[in-house]
Design a protein that fits this description.
There is one protein chain. Helix content is about 35%, strand content about 25%. The chain is α+β, with helices and mostly antiparallel strands and about 110 residues long. The chain has a 3-stranded mixed sheet. A two-stranded antiparallel ribbon has the order 4-5. Helix 2 links the parallel strand 1 and strand 2. It is globular.
Length: about 110
């Protein structure tokens, strides 16, 4: 789901806020934060980090900048494997209005 669709669903469900925790990345947190701001919804940026031991940890941050800094740290430690879209789908990085600015290669 796009950040805009997530926010739209949260508002429709009557939620007052959301957290976005994509797997290994917060690169869509800026778009989600903007969508949430426009909808009057509280937003907490984060990412789900999977360790080499296959532990999945939800990391939440006060700011988008902190979440993006964690993303950089995680990316530096990841194996340099290229995403297989046939297996995992495309990994788009989008703007608040769903324009795809990049396809994440990891």
């Amino acid at each position: 789901m796009s950040p805009a669709a997530i926010v739209e669903r949260a508002v429709a469900a009557g939620m007052g806020g959301i957290a976005l925790t994509d797997h290994q990345s917060a690169r869509n947190a800026p778009a989600a934060a903007e969508c949430a701001r426009r909808a009057g919804l509280a937003f907490m940026p984060g990412l789900e980090v999977q360790t080499a031991e296959e532990v999945h940890t939800v990391c939440l941050f006060d700011t988008v900048e902190q979440a993006l800094a964690m993303t950089d740290w995680v990316y530096a430690a990841l194996p340099k494997r290229v995403n297989d879209p046939d297996t995992f789908g495309d990994q788009p990085v989008v703007t608040w209005d769903n324009d795809v600015v990049e396809l994440e290669w990891r």
